[in-house]
Amino acid sequence: MKLIVAIIQPQKLDEVKAALYAADVNLITVSEVLGHGRQKGVTEVYRGVKETGNLLRKVRLEIAVNDSFVEPTINAIVKGARTGELGDGKIFVLPLERVVRIRTGEEGSEAIG
Amino acid sequence: MNAGDTAFVLVCAALVLLMTPALAFFYGGMVRRKNVLSMLMQCMFIVCLVSVQWVAYGYSLSFGSGSGFIGGLQWAGLGGVDGAPYAFYSATIPHQAFMIFQAMFAIITPALIIGAFAERMKFSAFAIFMLLWSTFVYDPIAHWVWGEGGWLRNMGVLDFAGGTVVHINAGVAALVCALMLGKRRGYCGTAAPPHNLPFTVLGAGLLWFGWFGFNSGSALSASGLAATAFVVTNTAAAAAGLAWALMDWIFHEKPTLFGVATGAVAGLVAITPAAGYVTPLASIFIGAIVSVVCWLAITKLKSRLGYDDTLDAFGVHGIGGIWGALATGLFATRAVNDAGGDGLFRDNPAQLLTQGIAVGATIAYSAVATFVILKVIDAIVGLRVSEREEAIGLDLTQHREAGYTVLE
Fold first, then answer.
1. Which residues of chain A make contact with B186, given a CB cutoff of 8 A?
2. DSSP B120-183
């Protein structure tokens, strides 16, 4: 089992979700984060004083998948999120030790099937 | 000069000024978070820009006597406009009180348009557009309907507080802007949800409050007419809010807050031209019908025709204003206002025709003039922000400010 963490552009979320559903990946968690890679942010100015945070809004997806779903999930995310411009994002694949479905107590592959 | 009238008109002018920041929040809550400041900024900027333009030459062009089409520059810089009354417009209030009351109308009218091109217009293009539009579209049409010697005024058009001058004018200009700027990236008829509906409702509430100044202030007197205008304003808004809630409830399962707020504003739009001429019972009808018509325009027509009038500036102000101006031709009665007129339901079909001419002329001129102005600006600076700027959002890219902090 793996945990796939993806950082994408916020305006790409709808397309990424559509691609994931099409790949039969239906269990996802979405959160809002700030960040930047090589895409430059925007410096804010308030009454002449600069704010140097430089961080841009991004969306973070967390998807727990069985090993057989890793490639389809990555492909779906790339398909939905890629624009070819700086700032498209990253995908991280982490090992996942244990999963529990709270409602039924199922564990492991069945919990994320 | 009358102290009561003067005090009333000045207070009403302040109420109408409040409507522009109110509009800012009404619209601001509807856009995505990354563009909230752009709505507020555009409104505040217009307050400043048009206030100065009005004093410099806008009032003179609108209300100075000249031709039937446009006023003269005799009052540029407000020369000759002072504390004494100018009897043609009102014998009981200072001329400057009348002028500053009208200034607030000149301010809010262009501000209505911003809903159509929200989230994608370049600020430089917007600023130039507002200056040119106020000068070449608002000022002439205000002159036609309200100015001394205006051709529609002389024809007997009944437009108490600005159904044509403000709402149809801005609404049609909004449609032209929406078509010429094109759709937002990623718009395919699906909604980006309003990021802050509480703001929208706050804005709607303050608009309703300010509208009492808009409509009953147009009586230019602390009088029975001001009172009747106040009453029909409130009644139409209320009927319209109810009607919209019902439409949502019947056709979309649940009544919505966004719907009640939108409906109330539509009702206020529709009663604007009629406020000094119709009975409270008529105002219930006017308010209820405008919600039905605007509801259909926004939920069915817009998606069917595929234009991105982002915040429904045309759907509410354009369509609502057209209904209101024509409804005035139906329901007007001298029993409410002897200096007004009678409508179709008082056996005077001629008024409806006059209203129709005013509606048609406003639509035609606003559409063509707005189109020309946009073409000129597009050639000079371009209308839209780049794709990347649109994705990041106008607040950061056009103003280098963020509406909300996430991490501090």
1. 11, 14
2. TB-HHHHHHHHHHHIIIIIHHHHHHHHSTT-HHHHHT---SS-IIIIIIHHHHHHHHHHHHH-P
If you classify domain B3-399 with CATH, what class do you get? mainly alpha
Report pLDDT digits (tens) over B37-93.
999 999 999 999 999 999 999 999 999 999 999 999 999 999 999 999 999 999 999
Q: Which residues of A touch B391 (CB under 8 A)?
A: 9, 11
User: B194 phi and psi, to 5 degrees?
Assistant: -55, 135
Do B324 and B273 touch, CB atoms closer than 8 A? yes
Q: What is the pLDDT of residue A50?
A: 87
Distance of alpha carbon B254 from alpha carbon B170, whole angstroms: 31
Residues 6+ away with beta carbon under 8 Å from B305? none
Domain boundaries, chain B: 3-399
Alpha-carbon dihedral angle through residues B159, B161, B167, B173, given to the nearest 10 degrees: 80
Q: Which of B186, B392, B407 sits opposite A42 (nearest CB)?
A: B392
Contact B406 A85 (CB under 8 A): no
Q: Quick one: average pLDDT of B157-176?
A: 97
Selection from B290, B293, B284, B282 nearest residue B340 by Cα? B282
Spatial distance between the Cα atoms of B260 and B201, rounded to a whole number of angstroms: 9
Amino acid at A15: E
Chain B, residues 193-252, CB within 8 A of chain A, namely none
* A8 shares contact with chain B (CB less than 8 Å): no
For chain A, list the domains and their CATH numbers.
2-112 (3.30.70.120)
Residues 6+ apart with CB under 8 A from A46: B401
Q: Is the pLDDT of residue B32 over 90?
A: yes
Question: How large is the greatest C-alpha to C-alpha distance in chain A, in angstroms?
Answer: 57
- Residue in B185, B190, B396 nearest the CB of A42: B396
Q: What is the pLDDT of residues B118-127, one digit of tens each?
A: 999 999 999 9
Q: What number is the ipTM of this complex?
A: 0.84
Spatial distance between the Cα atoms of B339 and A72, rounded to a whole number of angstroms: 75
- Tokens for B272, please give them: 């604007």
Mutation choice for B interface testing from A42, A43, A60 by most B CBs within 10 A: A42
CA distance B194 to chain A (A): 15
β-strand partners of A45: A50
Tokens of A103: 């409602």
pTM for the model stands at 0.93
Q: What's the sign of the alpha-carbon dihedral B23, B29, B31, B34?
A: positive
